Each structure stands twice: as C-alpha cells, then as structure tokens.
Amino acid sequence: MPKRTDIHKILIIGSGPIVIGQACEFDYSGTQACRALKQEGFEVVLVNSNPATIMTDPEIADKTYIEPLTVETLTAIIEKERPDALLPTVGGQTGLNLSVDLFEQGILDKFGVKLIGANINAIKVGEDRELFKAAMDEIGIPSAKGGFAHNWEEAQKIVEETGYPAIIRPAFTLGGTGGGVAFNPEEFEEIAKGGLAASPVSQILVEESILGWKEYELEVMRDLADNVVIICSIENFDPMGVHTGDSITVAPAQTLSDMEYQRLRDMSIACIRKVGVETGGSNIQFAVNPENGDVRIIEMNPRVSRSSALASKATGFPIAKIAAKLAVGYTLDEIPNDITKKTPASFEPTIDYVVTKIPKWAFEKFPQAEDILGTQMKSVGEVMAIGRTFKESLFKGLRSLEAVKPLRLEGIPDHVLQRKLARPNSQRFQYLTYALQNGYSIEEIHRLTKIDVWFLEQLQEVMLLQKRIENRKLNDVPSEILRTAKEFALSDRRIAFLTASDENSVRERRKNLGVIPVYKRVDTCGAEFESFTPYLYSTYEEECEAAPSDRKKIMILGSGPNRIGQGIEFDYCCCHASFALQDADFETIMVNCNPETVSTDYDTSDRLYFEPLTFEDVMNIVDVEKPDGVIVQFGGQTPLNLADRLHQANVPIIGTSPDSIDLAEDRKRFSALLKDLMIPQPESGTAVSVDEAKAIAATLGYPIIVRPSFVLGGRAMAIVYDEQSLIDYMRTAVDASPEKPILIDKFLERAVEIDVDALADETACVICGIQEHIEEAGIHSGDSSSVLPAQKIPSEHLETIQHYTRHLAKALNVKGLMNIQFAIKDNRVFVIEVNPRASRTVPFVAKATGVPIAKIASLVMADAKTLAEFNLPDVLPVPHIFVKSPVFPFKKFAGVDPILGPEMHSTGEVMGIGETFGEAYGKAMNGAGMNLPSSGKAFLSVNDSDKGQAVILARRLNNLGFKLIATYGSANRLKEVGLECETVFKVNEGRPNIADYIKRGEIALVINTPLGATSHYDEQAIRKAALQHNVPTVTTMTGAEALIEAISFKLNEEKVSVRSLQEIHEKGKSLIVNG
Questions:
Q1: How far is the C-alpha of 155 from the C-alpha of 355, rounded, in Å?
Q2: Which terminus of the chain has fewer CB atoms gathered within 10 Å of its CB, N or C?
Q3: C-alpha dihedral (486, 489, 493, 499), degrees to nearest 10
Q4: What is the mean pLDDT of residues 778-784?
C-alpha cells in the first residue's frame, strides 16, 4: 500500500531524561523515526525534554520543542502546531503513557489528531496486564497463574491462591519499577503496597513464581497487510527472576530446539495479531520450563523497546525506521533493506554470528543499596559484542565493560560462594568463573544458579584453555593454543596476566605468528547477498571483509557503555564529529560498543566498527584502516584513558595534544602552570599515605575535598570535615586508582560554582557558555542544576572568567573544545579544574546558543577550517534563559539516602526554557518529574547559618499562600519575625513527627538543609519519606530560592507558553555553520 495522503504533519513524543530502564535507545529510535518520516516528505514536530539527544537537534525534525513531557505542555504544542497525527511508539514507556493520557482526556479528538503506529486498543491490551491476560486466554497461550489487585485486600486474596514466592508486577510502569518477588507475607505486604502506589492506574499483577525458568524474547514486526516477520530471537543467560535489562542476553537464542523455536514463533505471531498491533515492532517475552518444555507468555511491549535497539544493532535491521514507515501506510514488502539494497524488509534477517549484551551497574555509587538483581531493573548502561561463537562474543563483551581493576577473587568460603551464586548480583560472573576454577561441578552450579548447563559448559571450556596457558612463558605457548585463546576472545592483557609478561609483548608475539583478527560485515542475510554498509566486527578467521578505502579518514572513539558520569552527552559529541567531518569530505570511522546509541547506527558514520574500546581492539582497527587522524577528546574518560598508549604507538591523535591533556589532569604540573599564569586556585596537595594526607590537611585547614586522580563523575570524591573522617576515607578509597595519588584541596564552602565551555585554536578563542550552578559548591557539577546565561554574577567577575579562560586556552594549546570549572568565594575567582576535551554540558550549550559547537570543534581539530574562519562572536549570545536539571535514580535503590554531594548520582538531565528564570526553572523541575505545589504546608528545617535566609524564603512562601510548619528551632525563629508557623517533632523527638506528616500526604514542600552528623538520622528519614511520597524536596538554600521563584511564576501564569528551537534561534541563523 502506498503511503497515506490524509496526513501531512506528524507529532513524535520522545522519552525524556535518561533514567534506569529507559536510556538512550529511545534517542536512537526517535532519531530514526524523525529522519524516515522527513525523508517521506512529512512535516515532523518533535517534543522531548532531554537536550543531550541527537533527536532534539534542530535539523532532525522541522519543529523541535525541548519542553516537559506533561499533558499540559503537549496540549499547548498540539494547539499551536495542529499536527494531523501522533506517533506514540518510539518514545519508550513515557511517550506511550503520555499518548494514552492525551487520548483519554479528549485532547486528540478535540484537535483532530489521529494515533498512528499503534491504535489505542492495542496499546491498552499490550500494557494493561488484565486485558493482556484475558486476550492470551482467548487464543490459548498460557500465562502465569495469578490475578489482578487494585487494592491491598484483593492482593491478599490472590496470594492465597498463588502461594510463595509470588511475583508482583505493576501496570504501566517502566523497568519493573515498584515490582519484586515476595518470599513471605511480610515482604508481600511491602512490595504489593509499593506496587499499587507506583502504578499510575493502581493495578498490580500477582502471579505464581516461575523463578528458574528460562527466559526468551522475540522481536516481531507486523504491517497493515498482516505480514509478520520475526527480526530475531533473544535468550537470557539468567533464568526468570532477573529483569531482562539486568540479564546478559544472547541473540540468536542458543539452547532452543528447532521445534521449541517454531512454537514460540507461532505464539508470537498469534499474540501480535490478537493484541492488534497493526504497524510496527513489538517485543514479546516468554518463560520456558527446562524440565518439561511448558511455556508461559510474560508480557509484550506494543512499541519499540529497549530490546528493539539491541535487535536492530544485532541484525542490522533498522526497526524504528521501518516502524515509522509502516505507521504511514507502507507494507514490509515495499520497504527496501538499506544494507543489501536487493531484499525488501519483509525478508527475515538471518545472522551467522552471535551477539551478546552485558549490562553495566553502578552499585559503587550507592553503597547503602544491597547488590542484588531482581525484577526491578538497576543497570545504568550496557555493552554489546559480536563474535562467531557465544564464547567470542561473551568475552569481547566482558572486556567492553572497562573494568579498570578486574575483580580477582581469592579464598571465598563455600557458604559465601553458594549465596553469591544463588542470589544474582552484579559480580556474579566472577563468582561463576571462580566456582568453575575451584572444583564446583557444572551440575552443582546449575542447581544454585539455574543458568543453562550449555552456557556453563562454554565457560568451562574457556577456563580449561586458560589452565593450559597459565604459568608458561609467553614464548612457550604454542601458536595453535594462542590462536584458540584469541578465538575465545581472551584479551592480550589477560594472556599477559596468565604468562606473567606484558600486553605489548603478547601483541608482538601474536603478530609475529600471524594471529591477527579479520573483520566481518553485518549483512542481515547470513552472507547470502552482498552488504553495502561497512558495519564490521572482528573475529579470528581467514577472510577479511573490511576492504578499507584510500580516502582521507578520521577515526572517532566513542564513549562505551552509559554509566553515571559518562552518558549520552558524549555520544552526542561523537555523532556531531562524524556528521561534520562527512560534510567536509572525510571518511568517518566510528568505534563503539554501546548498542543503545545513535553513534552505533550503521548510517551515522561511513564505517562502523562494533568493537570494545580497549588499546588492543583499537590498535587492531588502526592497523587495518590507517586513519589520518583519531579523535579521543569526545568520548569522555574512556578514549582519554587510551590516549597516552595510542600516542606512544604513533597513532595520529588530532586536536589538543595528549601532553596538554595530561598537563591539565596532572595536579602538580597543572598547579605550576596556574602559578605561572597568576591564576588563583584553592590550596591543595597530593598524598599516597594516611600520614601524608593528615599533614596536608593540617596545613590547609578543614573542610577539605579529597578524591583520586584521573576519574570521571566524582568517583570516590568526598568532603571531609575532620581528621577521623579523613583516616576512614584514606583506608577505603585509596585503591580507587592505583599508582595515582589522592588529591586534597581546600574546600571553598558556600562558593558559587561556574562551568565554562569554550572553543579554541591558535587563531581564536570563543566562549560558548558561562553557566552558573544553582546549588552551591560541594555538589558535583553533573548533579547541580545550572542556568545559562548566569543570573547573579557581577559583570566584573564574568570579565575575569573570560580573561582566565583565554589565558588557559593559549597556555594549554587547546585545539577544539575545553571546559573549565570556576568557583567564586569572597569576591575572588578561583580555577577548580580544566578539561581540554568535550564536557557533558556541550549539547546543552549548543541547544541554548543555536551553535553546533561539537561540529565546529571537529572541523578545527581536523584542520578543515580555523576557528577564526567561522566568524563567531567572542562570547556566544543566549536568546532566552535555559536551565539544565539532573534526574536521579534513588527510587530504584531501596535504603539509599537521596542527598547530593561531590560524587555524581544523576543518570540524565532535562532542559527548561523560559523568558524568566522562574519559568525556565519551573519547566526544568517539571521535566525532571517534580510537580510544583501551588498551595499546602511548606516544611522548613535548616541549620543555624541558613536561618536568616530561611526567614526571607518563609515570608515569600507565606505571601504565595502556603502554610508554614517547622521543627522547634526553625519555628521559633519564624514566629520571632511575626510569621504564623506550626511546630512539629523531629523524627527522634516523638510522634507524630514530620515523617508521619509526609506519609499522611499533608506536606507540599520540604526545605531541609543538612545540620551535620547529629541530626543525620533525622534528615535521612525526612528525605526518604519525601522521596517515597513524591514530595518536592530541596537540600540547599539556593535550590529553595530557585524553587520558590518557579512556584511564584507558575501561580501567576495564565497559560503555558511553548517555543520551538527553530523559533528561538531564528534571528541567529547567520551564525550557524554550514548546516
């Protein structure tokens, strides 16, 4: 069928900020959908609150709104833009839920907007667990025994039938939020009540446990002509009971017999037809009982899902792009396959290799949380690897995770090992291999873990091979054993460890013996047709399909798996480098291993190597491609950690030199440079031992800030107020990076922090953005909200900041991007640190100024143009007020205190745009999921030094119509100045205390600044209660001030105003560089 002619303008809703369970795979799907629809001649309107995405780039859609994803905002956009249709299936759970809300509130009808890609009925049957179960019963596909509860009484009845353990799954939530497995009535009550609260429709499914069954997923697509194709099957390495987002997964399924696969395939096709997904992709999950082959269907997602990104990258079949084309009327047999150019999309992909996805967790950021994996997703990112066998793809994947210090277990007692095997955790892989090496039989490990015996046998083969290498000298290892080791994807580093040699010697010996990798292409068709897209992976076989060209080429090293501190912002920079350099007629080569991103799309760069970002793998590609330049400054810390070794191996690194990067990172060299330039910095020192640290602290005076060198995201960074805390810190954190000393700085209490992004080369220095942090010093820059342009900084300080920035750019010979953090205390500007590379604020600054600074930087680095030739002003103008706010994952980690500090905890960010600071900050808070209260009781509990300021804020709240409630000391101070204020007990003073009030829903807003160790317990209880009950909470006075400004704006606003990026930057168009 040809495309529909009754629609011309399509609205796409993105997935908002990156949270656990919904990461940048939806940037990838949204970007693909926008491009596919524009290509077909439709006008595309995009809404998303996350500025770090490629999809919110002004050239991807015709109109781009970076606004909060709420019904109120969307109504305003629909009224203004009048789209004909809404595509709800490429924005994850957020986009889907919001589309359902718009439909149910009659807004789509009112403005004549049709839903395309999934009808409301299909969405409901797929998402509402009750309707889904009924639909499956009708076609005879068994689902787990159990029932639905809408309140606690119903839940108790159902659990009597299912017995324990019981699984609780809330409807319409993401990444298993609010769900869990209950092993006894006490746990059941806690999880069931939490699940009812977490579900927007107050519905939970309570079902029999199928823990220990094998779990499979099928990625399915269907079109209007009822053609159905299976894109690929995916098998979970872990049995049921671990969320698929936290499980190692393998495609295609490895342990299914042909008959079992056909059965699941038939069920999937029946399921997608019954649910009524007419156009687009769905992900269907099954559990299979390994004892007798019984099948249960678990759930389906009637949208592009996290697994769709994996299935797309695993097969080269662009699911989101094709889903978008199906949504506008095409059928699968009318859409050509980009990779083969000969086959249509109705041709099912076949793959002649194995793909493994491995999650990456961040438990080290949340020491209070228990490291246990269950039905709530906890991983923050993932890697994917491709190999010819399961072993090869698994071990390539493991080294893609970048374990800086491999966890080498020794002397684990049996009872601990058995518990670690029986209760899945983020390090279970190391425990599995330890058990295999220490005499545990495969049957015993299978009994404890329920991991399929076939997978355990594969691991055992690798362990046995390692035994044949261990304790031999490198030159005594026979070449066939060395080749087998490489076929099993053992890294050069691992072989060096086993033979007590070093990585360079292994590499040399391997090359002398001719043991070098070849590159194969992902071709969607098991090599039946020629592949036109160079999407490559390495393996140790004979024939190489790389066919490198002799064009001028630049290789870009990506940022690897998402994690806290290094996310999608760096992927954005890598993509921009690729786009700009392709336009300047370079061939671009992307190296990355993260399946969720736009950078690993086969059409982002000229050539894509889906490989781990290690010295060994990058050098192998350099040997084949011989690039003219390599960019290491855009992918965050991952490629920077390789810079020195690549430089020593004569790899041509372009842009700022590795020596300058080292000068900025090396504390001693950097301090000397600042002294030469006469730029003030906080007093500091470096220490390797506890005694050294104590001596430095005594000289500087407390409080001090301590951290390891060369880390990202404030890993293991702390503010220390006394000697005892310092001793504790040195004991626990010194090994955060070995051979690297601990850095100690005087902590500038209550200073204002500033972030500056700049572009420089020998011809010019352009200041792109001077952002002011809303939280004061001591909170990691990635966790602080910030505003551009700065609101409260006197112009003379801004001039000083510009002056220091230019001086530093020159002294470090910066060529490309740089980021500097400043602090202002007692009217003096200090430099905290300089990073001569892309920072996480680059996309935010680019969206706010309308200037694609990462593209400009890459052209400058590649010598395509000098910075002066771009004719940019010295300081880029900012047309409105832009606020960036972080989003945190505290809810996923039970027992964690949601307080901010120098170690980064946020997973993503949103942007708010306004005419005034209040409007922009309010939108950012909304986008981050905080609902601003318009009335009610505001609770205040602040430390003595904040009481003066608290009085001013309390009076403002009172004038806005809020009632005040405070703990004894704060309440007295407020009454003293004539404000009416209710007094309430602290948590440890008696009942009913403030936590009770919060739990009863009587508090609208919490302002609570930390008072020190004594009341730590009290504050923690307040913050945890507020987090559970969604009460807006601020822990700094500057944050409280900003929030009150936002509330005041909201109360006076008549109607939400929305602005597209294209409107905002209309006037500045002349600045934008060649597209």
A1: 40
A2: C
A3: -50
A4: 79
Question: How far, rounded to the nearest angstrom, does the alpha carbon of residue 561 sit from its chain's CA centroid?
Answer: 8
**What is the per-residue pLDDT across 312-359, written as a single tens digit (0 to 9) for each?**
999 988 899 999 999 999 999 999 888 777 888 888 888 899 999 999
Give the long-range contacts of residues 291-297, CB within 8 A, separation 24 or more. 293/260, 294/142, 295/141, 295/142, 295/263, 295/264, 295/267, 296/142, 296/143, 296/144, 296/210, 296/213, 297/136, 297/141, 297/142, 297/143, 297/267, 297/271
Rounded to the nearest 5 percent, the helix, strand and coil shares of the chain are: 40, 20, 40
Count the Cβ atoms, other than its own, within 10 Å of residue 811: 17
Question: What is the tens place of the pLDDT at every residue in 618-664?
Answer: 999 999 999 999 999 999 889 998 999 999 999 999 999 989 988 98
Reply yes or no on whether the pLDDT at 540 is more than 90.
yes
Residue 832 or 23, more confident: 832
How far apart (Å, rounded) are the C-alpha atoms in residues 1029 and 1027?
A: 6
3-state secondary structure of 554: strand
Residue 585, both tokens? 């007629």
Q: How sure is the predictor about 1075, in pLDDT bands with cuts at 50, 70 and 90?
A: very low
Q: How many CB atoms within 10 Å of residue 637? A: 20
Spatial separation of the C-alpha atoms in residues 825 and 572, rounded to whole Å: 34
Q: What strands, in cross-sheet order, belong to the sheet with 607-610?
A: 518-521, 535-539, 607-610, 587-592, 553-557, 629-631
Q: What is the secondary structure of 775-813 as a DSSP string? A: S-TTS-GGGS-EEES-SS--HHHHHHHHHHHHHHHHHTT
Per-residue buried b or exposed e for 160-174, using 16+ beta carbons within 10 Å of the residue's own CB: eebeebbbbbbbbbb
Tokens of 199: 């579900």
What's the pLDDT score for residue 557?
Answer: 97
For residue 212, the tally of other CB atoms under 10 A from its CB is: 15
Q: SS3 of 179, please?
A: coil
pLDDT in tens, 270-310: 999 999 888 888 899 999 999 888 999 998 888 888 788 88
Give the per-residue pLDDT at 1071.
42
Q: Omega of the bond prior to 992 within 30 degrees of 0, cis?
A: yes
- As a whole number of Å, the end-to-end CA separation of the chain is 35
With a CB cutoff of 8 Å and minimum separation 6, the contacts of 517 are 486, 538, 539, 540, 620
**Helix residue spans in 23-70 (DSSP H):** 25-39
Q: What number is the average pLDDT over the span 392-415?
A: 83
pLDDT of residue 892: 64
Q: List Cβ neighbours of 409 (8 Å cut-off, separation of 6 or more).
A: 430, 431, 434
Q: Secondary structure of 675-697 in the HEC alphabet?
A: HHHCCCCCCEEEECCHHHHHHHH
Mean pLDDT of 803-812: 97
Q: State the pTM of this model.
A: 0.91
CB atoms within 10 A of CB 909: 29
Could you give the CA distance from residue 294 to residue 257 in angstroms, rounded to a whole number? 14
Q: In 10 A of CB 547, how many CB atoms? A: 11
Task: HSE, CB side, 13 Å, CA atoms: give it for residue 169.
Answer: 26
- CB hemisphere CA count around 852 (13 angstroms): 26
Q: Give the pair of three-digit tokens for residue 97.
A: 């839920």
Beta bridge partners of 641: none
Does residue 402 register a pLDDT over 50? yes
Helix (H, G, I), strand (E, B), or coil: what is residue 519? strand
Which token pair is 920? 């922009």
pLDDT per residue over 698-756, tens digit each? 898 888 888 776 655 556 778 888 888 888 887 776 554 446 678 888 888 888 999 99
Mean pLDDT is highest, among 255-264, 583-592, 634-643, 1042-1051, for: 583-592
Gap between the Cα atoms of 459 and 254, Å rounded: 14
Which 3 state secondary structure label does DSSP give 758?
strand
d(CA 83, CA 53): 23
